[in-house]
Amino acid sequence: MIKFLLMVNQQGQTRLSRYFEPVELNRRAVHEAAVVRCCLSRNKEQCSFVEYQDFKLVYRQYAALYVVVGVSHTENELSIFELIQNFVEVLDRYFSRVSELDIMFNLDSVHIILDEMIQNGHIVETNKNRILAPLTAINKMVDG
């Protein structure tokens, strides 16, 4: 099961956080800082799967952004690694070459994409066209 998804920049600033399990707000900042420090401190030759506390971290770097996913010990790391790749490809298709600013200024659209892909910590959709269908419909209504 997916516990959380974070998008952070190379300075460790969180640009997107989504939790699929309840975590107290006062603990989130400390938790995110520790997770980000763990991932950013690793060099490029090291594996992108990390055993951390009571879960595993799967992360991937895209330019200046890191996507970090916390999962339970029973989750398949490679499937999460592919989920991250698919998520970034969907963002690239929607934003035509996604950047950190796209994430910051279109957070609602990013959350809609994430909601289409993951619900209650489980992957429910991977088809890019189906994932983008609600946003396409919303954009047609706004433009029309």
UniProtKB/TrEMBL annotation:
The keyword Metal-binding belongs to this UniProt entry's keyword annotation: no
Compartments in which it is found: Endomembrane system
Q: Which UniProt keywords apply?
A: Membrane, Protein transport, Transport
The record ties this protein, via InterPro entries, to:
AP_complex_ssu (IPR016635), AP_mu_sigma_su (IPR022775), Longin-like_dom_sf (IPR011012)
Q: Which residues form the signal peptide?
A: none
UniProt GO cellular component terms = cytoplasm; endomembrane system
Query: What's any GO biological process attached to this entry?
Result: intracellular protein transport
All residue ranges annotated as the AP complex mu/sigma subunit domain in the record = 1-141
Keyword Transport applies: yes
- Entries under Pfam families matching the protein: Clat_adaptor_s
Q: Which domain of life is it from?
A: Eukaryota
The record's note on quaternary structure and interaction partners says:
Adaptor protein complex 4 (AP-4) is a heterotetramer composed of two large adaptins (epsilon-type subunit AP4E1 and beta-type subunit AP4B1), a medium adaptin (mu-type subunit AP4M1) and a small adaptin (sigma-type AP4S1).
The record describes the protein's role as: Component of the adaptor protein complex 4 (AP-4). Adaptor protein complexes are vesicle coat components involved both in vesicle formation and cargo selection. They control the vesicular transport of proteins in different trafficking pathways. AP-4 forms a non clathrin-associated coat on vesicles departing the trans-Golgi network (TGN) and may be involved in the targeting of proteins from the trans-Golgi network (TGN) to the endosomal-lysosomal system.
User: Per its record, how is this protein called by name?
Assistant: AP complex subunit sigma
- The organism encoding this protein is Iconisemion striatum
